[in-house]
Amino acid sequence: MFNLSEKKDGRVYEMRQITETTTSWNLHLRRNMHVWEEEQYNPLQGTLAQINNEEGDDSWSWTKDSRGIFTVKSMYELISTPQKISPSPHHPFPYTLVWKKPVPLNIKMFLWTLVLGRTQTVDNLNRKGQNLVAVCVMCGMLEESILHLFLHYPKSLEIWAFFLGFNSDLYASIFETGSVTEWLLAWPKKRGNDLSLIVWQLLPVAIIWIIWKFRNGRTFSGKEITTGKMVMEIEGIIWYWGGIWPGRRRYRFQDLLSNWDNIINGAS
Ligand SMILES: [Zn+2]
């Protein structure tokens, strides 16, 4: 939610909108909330409703102590009496996105670091104290970051456009997305036959994984990047991952290749 706000250094009272009869909150979000963000927003509204709101600077206060000061004693009392701990808040980690995908374990691990923002892109390595050239090896123009590499690097865009060409609204939303996690979470559900459903579900993960593979080939071995090869590998790996699905036996790889457009359109 914080990432979505266009007023990150605003004070709490500045987000408040008062009319004669109501008080509401405007967090200055740059787009409408998705369902899972509303799940975070609703408890936040409840919390905001309980506070005394005054104009002035915000400050931290420890609510388990009457003076608002953190003490180890108050923390100890809190955790040694479980009923004092309110039901666990909505856990922001997108568990199903990472661990419930029908992909091999190494891909899950990769997705896990990606969702945590810890993929070893150059910006992350430099933040950890390395001193690498910050420019993306793929385009040579912008800083390499997770968002840039996987979504906005020109050849990555070409790949997304290639696979999403039939759905220009979905493709256009890639420019409003604030993170790869957000993009994956917003990946729409689809109708279609069983093969379409599997392919569609695996598609974004396959694209991201193959971009990473080509990026590493480029970074470590200076290999050429061609979108044609990337597309082939994406289709190939979807087929390979799909092997754990028993229904795949009814199809041949050739069916996937020759009927690709219909399959991702959900028309076949
Ligand atoms: Zn780049």
From TrEMBL:
<dbReference type="InterPro" id="IPR026960">
    <property type="entry name" value="RVT-Znf"/>
</dbReference>
<dbReference type="Pfam" id="PF13966">
    <property type="entry name" value="zf-RVT"/>
</dbReference>
<protein>
    <recommendedName>
        <fullName>Reverse transcriptase zinc-binding domain-containing protein</fullName>
    </recommendedName>
</protein>
<feature type="domain" description="Reverse transcriptase zinc-binding">
    <location>
        <begin position="70"/>
        <end position="160"/>
    </location>
</feature>
